[in-house]
Design goal:
Blueprint (H helix, E strand, L loop, with lengths): L1 H10 L4 E5 L10 E5 L3 H12 L4 E4 L6 E3 L18 E3 L3 H6 L6 E8 L3 H11 L4 E6 L10 E7 L5 E8 H24 L1
Parallel strand pairs: 1-2, 3-6, 6-7
Antiparallel strand pairs: 4-5, 7-8, 8-9
Helix pairs in contact: 1-5
């Protein structure tokens, strides 16, 4: 989904910085790719780019926890400890949005149940302008070329987008963000 949005943003004339974990996908032309491996690397790169951006769209499903004591080599079955102590990974979106100025922030929420309730809570807690939510296991989303999205905004905005290709949804999302930013600009000028 992130690559589809990046492609649509480039096509719309945006300057695009794409921070991505390992993938088989090729980054869109005219986009700057920042490859990362860990959630910490992703946070550091997004954090470094955030202040200069106009729009931040976060689609990555970064893990919530990581091993507290990573093993330097493979553990053998006979001697491996069966309990792994974990620690939280920084919430990238929540952390950078705390210093939001004029940026328009869009997040994604992949949920297994109570989609709108959880997405609305994330929208508020992470100071976003828009959240795109989808149900995991709804024959769309991860690993597929299509998605089904529910878009929510802090002002009560709600649109349900039916199943469509990620490319099509990327174009629609870029158009929606552009429209919402123009509305915001018009309000601030009046």
């Amino acid at each position: 989904m992130g690559f589809a949005i990046a492609e649509a943003a480039v096509a719309a004339g945006w300057t695009v910085d794409l921070v991505s974990g390992p993938t088989h996908l090729r980054e869109p032309d005219e986009c700057i790719l920042y490859p990362v491996i860990t959630g910490e690397e992703m946070f550091n790169q997004v954090d470094a780019l955030f202040d200069a951006c106009d729009v931040l769209i976060m689609t990555a499903a970064v893990v919530d926890f990581r091993p507290k004591f990573p093993m330097p080599q493979k553990e053998k079955k006979g001697s491996a400890q069966l309990t792994i102590e974990t620690e939280p990974v920084v919430d990238i979106l929540k952390t950078v949005s705390q210093r939001k100025k004029d940026q328009f922030i869009v997040g994604f929420a992949a949920e297994t149940n109570d989609l709108e309730e959880y997405a609305t809570r994330k929208l508020r807690e992470k100071n976003m302008d828009l959240i795109a939510a989808n149900l995991i296991g709804s024959a769309s989303g991860f690993g597929l070329d299509s998605n089904i999205l529910t878009l929510l905004g802090p002002d009560g905005f709600c649109e349900k987008w039916p199943s469509a290709s990620k490319s099509s949804l990327g174009r629609d999302l870029v158009a929606l963000v552009t429209r919402k930013m123009e509305e915001r600009r018009a309000l601030s000028e009046s």
